[in-house]
Amino acid sequence: MITYTTAQSEADLQGILSLQKANLVKNLDQEEIQSQGFVTVDHTYEQMAALNAVEAHLIAKVDEEVVGYLLCMTAASGADIPVLVPLFELFKGITYQGKPVSDYHYLVVGQVCVAKAYRGQGVLDQAYAAYRRFFGKKYDFAITEIALSNPRSLNGHRRVGFEVIHQYTDPKSGVEWAVVLWDWQGENELS
User: Fold this and answer.
1) Closest C-alpha to 180, from 96, 119, 58, 105
2) What is the pLDDT of residues 13-34, one digit of tens each?
3) Rounded Cα gap, residues 117 and 12, in angstroms
4) Residues 6+ apart with CB under 8 A from 34
5) Which of 83, 76, 71 has its CA nearest to residue 143?
6) Residue 53: pLDDT band by 50, 70, 90 thresholds?
7) Which of 15, 82, 85, 159 is buried deepest, with most CB atoms within 10 A?
């Protein structure tokens, strides 16, 4: 049975990092990238723990094994991961419902991953339902960016209730990104 909770221990954080490493784009072949998706940012234990201290990450567990995770990042933790600082800067120039994203109280989904053996079983949907239960009353919405070259992730996020509010191309890497938002105060609710 899969349980959904927040990361509470060093073992939970190490479980997240282990799953992350197995799914980093740099550790996958092209076929796997296209069919299964990937994660981009490679966190250190110290970074993961610092983020978790601000807002605990959501994890899916079978017994003691982490089989999925949704990382939590707040505006306060935005400077903790240097590669993500430009995303928080971008939020100052993107509007949602007539206001800059940076004017809202939002939660950034720092990264999402489900273990291969558990994909296609509703784990992502259930994890996001738990994410909203844990954080929906505290934040206006969840927001993240997804590489357009990762259609599995983009489609999964749309299914949950995220909508694309902005697209851009990173001038340094040439990677095309979609900024997606799940409005927790609106009607896009996962049942």
Assistant:
1) 96
2) 999 999 999 887 777 767 876 7
3) 18
4) none
5) 71
6) very high
7) 15
CA dihedral 12, 25, 114, 116 (to 10 degrees): -110
Place of tokens 């784990």: 123
Nearest to 145 by CA among 161, 162, 131: 162
- Per-residue tokens: 163: 């909508």
- All domains in the chain, ordered by first residue: 2-183 (3.40.630.30)
- At 154, the amino acid letter reads L
Query: Is this structure's pTM higher than 0.70?
Result: yes
> With 0-12 CB in 10 A as exposed, 13-18 as middle and 19+ as buried, what is 187?
exposed
